[in-house]
Automatic annotation (TrEMBL):
InterPro entries: AA_transpt_TM (IPR013057). It comes from Elliptochloris bilobata. GO terms for cellular component: membrane. Residues 52-453 form the Amino acid transporter transmembrane domain. This is Amino acid transporter transmembrane domain-containing protein.
Length: 469
């Protein structure tokens, strides 16, 4: 009888042979870990072309991917979840997402192979074709959806800054510089940065974005505390849903669950980030070191902004805490500029795996898209397409409650646990067995309820949607 033995960092340590009552251990040599896909050694694909990353690179990338502009909407989620529900939801989301992120990281190296992409690990667990579809559809929903959302967010933030600094009170002279124009300006910056050949070439961009996310989250926290202490009548702050119709309140709770879940979308790129680390030695320890640093930043940004924002304004908080605060104007303008820098970096981090999928797919057919002329052509076309969608439906961000629950719910909260159970097969007496099932049950519930709430919100808000603003 043979049983596989695993270390906590995911490396296969030994084959345990108990057929004759003796236990034998033989460590697997680190360099036995081979790429799952041989195309990685032939083509300079975006995810695997440069594997010289340091552990702190993974921290930059994870902060940029995780702490998105969605953090500014967390106080609005508390509006419907209220104090007890909001605290419980954000704590559980934090703990579960960190646990499932650990599961993905240790499974990056499994049975002698490196799985450099989320869909590769899915194929390893569920079978080639089935696994690819189970993972790729929700992963693309998140990554392409975030590309569109961040393009709209960047355009809106620049438009807001323009209105505050250069517009007259009536804004009639500013109509030629509407939202669509600023989305195009944002896209122009992306046309340049998207030519970065691989993940490691984004390190400076990602570091800048990570610093900006920490900075504008801190501004949101400080401005909320200042408003709550000096500019609001505390006796009139309402922390109930008494002004909300019962029907809207229930589905508002569902949508709020999706909003919180959507804030933890970094799992969709974590294996691609880990693939940039050199091996040997095992990449799990340096990757988790970067993850833990990133989650300290996540802890501060998410908890401070959500709690301070809801405390300051209660039921009257808007879906963007910076818009709710509104003053001092110079500080909010600065925070919006920081949002622009951050979403520029986040766009690149979430787009790089999409580009890798495209180049990988063509490489299978013998077509090399990694050359500079090919990159200039098809990557520019991708930015133009994303920008066209963003200009056409600039309300796309409001759809992300539904799309986020549909995409982020599975890829963050329960698919990693399912994959872990399939590949590691922990026994009923193992804590990871029960922890994984808790993640699956809660994650599926959030996916279903969040999708329902997001869909109802879309239906209720459809009359307010305007194309080409």
């Amino acid at each position: 009888m043979k049983k596989e033995m695993w270390s906590e960092d995911g490396q296969e340590l030994a084959k345990r042979d108990t057929s004759n009552g003796a236990e034998k251990y033989s460590a697997r040599a680190p360099d036995d870990f081979a790429d799952h896909d041989k195309l990685d050694s032939v083509y300079n694909l975006p995810v695997t072309a440069d594997r010289t990353a340091k552990w702190y690179y993974s921290a930059f990338h994870n902060v940029t991917a995780m702490v998105g502009a969605g953090v500014l909407g967390l106080p609005y989620a508390f509006k419907y979840l209220l104090w007890p529900g909001g605290i419980v939801t954000i704590v559980l989301s934090y703990v579960i997402s960190l646990y499932t992120l650990w599961q993905l990281c240790i499974l990056h190296e499994d049975r002698g192979k490196r799985f450099n992409r989320y869909h590769e690990l899915g194929s390893h667990a569920f079978g080639q074709r089935r696994g690819w579809w189970i993972i790729t559809i929700p992963q693309l929903v998140v990554m392409v959806g975030l590309g569109i959302t961040y393009t709209v967010t960047g355009g809106r933030s620049m438009h807001y800054v323009w209105q505050q600094l250069a517009c007259c009170d009536t804004c009639t002279q500013c109509r030629p510089f509407g939202l669509s124009a600023w989305i195009i300006v944002f896209a122009a910056a992306q046309l340049i940065l998207i030519q970065c050949p691989n993940f490691n070439s984004l390190t400076v961009v990602s570091l800048s974005a990570a610093i900006m996310s920490l900075a504008y989250s801190t501004i949101a926290f400080g401005a909320s505390m200042d408003a709550g202490l000096h500019y609001t009548d505390r006796s009139k702050i309402d922390y109930t849903l008494n002004r909300e119709p019962a029907f809207s309140g229930v589905f508002g709770v569902f949508n709020a669950l999706g909003t919180v879940a959507f804030a933890y979308g970094g799992h969709n790129v974590v294996l691609e980030i880990q693939a940039t680390l050199p091996h040997p030695p095992s990449t799990v320890k340096p990757m988790m070191k970067g993850v833990y640093v990133a989650y300290v930043v996540v802890l501060w940004c998410y908890f401070s902004v959500s709690i301070a924002g809801y405390w300051a304004f209660g039921y009257d908080v808007q879906d963007n805490i910076l818009q709710t605060v509104g003053k001092p104007k110079w500080l909010i303008v600065m925070a919006n500029l920081m949002v622009v820098v951050h979403v520029i970096g986040s766009f690149q981090v979430y787009t790089m795996p999409v580009l890798d999928m495209i180049e990988h797919g063509f490489a299978k057919r013998g077509i090399n898209l990694t050359t500079l002329p090919a990159r200039l052509l098809y990557r520019s076309a991708y930015v133009v397409l994303i920008s066209f969608v963003a200009c056409t439906i600039p309300f796309f961000g409001s759809l992300m409650g539904f799309i986020g629950a549909f995409g982020t719910g599975p890829t963050t909260f329960w698919l990693p646990a399912v994959i872990y159970l399939v590949l590691r097969k922990p026994g009923v007496g193992n804590i990871h067995f029960w922890a994984s099932w808790i993640c699956i049950i809660l994650g599926v519930a959030v996916t279903i309820l969040g999708s329902i709430g997001g869909l109802v919100d879309i239906i209720e808000s459809a009359s307010t949607y305007k194309f080409y603003q």
